[in-house]
């Protein structure tokens, strides 16, 4: 069954889709080649919008019309990750004295990769690991890099590396006692 062009007083076959509404819905009408060309010449997505509405649409379009969150937002992924990473349940005195003498322990391949990702030498003191992590988080946070996804992925790997070392250091301290 062939569809007839949806243009008024046209009996050609309608093979080409033309949107019915501006809201990116799935609603469309079928037009013949001549009428879809006519439709496209006159189509203006922004007709009926003032300058501010057009600018708002274009700004929203830069983030695929999805809401963005500042780093300070309570449910921001990076803030949750950051807060969980910085949460230390260790005794502060034990942390200061024993975490700084981890060079004597063996590290697995995940630990070595984590040291590499953070750009520090294997067996570094915990204070150096923590300081380097803070510097890298500030450097690679998407808010500091115009929301670039490349930096978001880098920050995830940095956070995972930090978490790997934190767990390793915690485990080695706990087995010592």
Can you walk me through this structure?
The chain is mainly alpha-helical. It has two domains: 1-67, no CATH class; 77-176. It has helices at 33-42, 51-61, 77-86, 92-98, 109-118, 126-140, 149-176; strands spanning 16-19, 28-31. A two-stranded antiparallel sheet has the order 1-2. β1 and β2 form a beta hairpin. α3 runs parallel beside α7 (149-176), α5 (109-118) packs across α7 and α6 runs antiparallel to α7. Mean pLDDT is 79; it is low at 88-100.
In short:
The protein has 177 residues and is mainly α.
Give the SSE string.
EEHHHHHHH
Overall geometry: elongated
Fraction of residues in helices?
A: 40-55%
Mean pLDDT: 79
Spatial order of strands in the largest sheet: 1-2
How many domains, in number, for the residues?
2
Largest β sheet strand count, sense and barrel closure = 2 strands, antiparallel
- Please, how many helices? 7
N/C terminus separation: 80 Å
Beta-strand residue fraction: under 5%
Structural class: mainly alpha
Low-confidence stretches: 88-100
How big is the Rg?
28 Å
Tally of extended strands? 2
Any chance you could write out the topology, listing elements then pairs?
Elements: E1 16-19, E2 28-31, H1 33-42, H2 51-61, H3 77-86, H4 92-98, H5 109-118, H6 126-140, H7 149-176
Antiparallel strand pairs: 1-2
Helix pairs in contact: 3-7, 5-7, 6-7
């Amino acid at each position: 069954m062939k569809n007839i062009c949806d243009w008024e007083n046209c009996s050609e076959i309608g093979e080409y889709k033309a949107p019915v509404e501006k809201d990116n819905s799935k609603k469309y009408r079928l037009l013949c080649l001549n009428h879809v060309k006519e439709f496209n010449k006159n189509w203006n997505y922004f007709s009926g919008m003032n300058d501010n509405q057009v600018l708002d649409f274009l700004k929203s379009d830069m983030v695929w019309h999805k809401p963005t969150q500042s780093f300070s937002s309570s449910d921001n992924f990076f803030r949750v990750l950051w807060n969980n990473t910085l949460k230390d349940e260790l005794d502060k005195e034990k942390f200061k004295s024993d975490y700084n003498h981890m060079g004597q322990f063996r590290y697995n391949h995940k630990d070595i990769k984590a040291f590499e990702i953070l750009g520090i030498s294997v067996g570094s003191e915990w204070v150096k690991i923590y300081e380097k992590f803070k510097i890298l988080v500030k450097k690679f946070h998407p808010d500091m890099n115009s929301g670039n996804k490349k930096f978001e992925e880098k920050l995830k790997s940095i956070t995972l590396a930090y978490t790997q070392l934190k767990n390793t250091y915690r485990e080695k301290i706990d087995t010592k006692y």
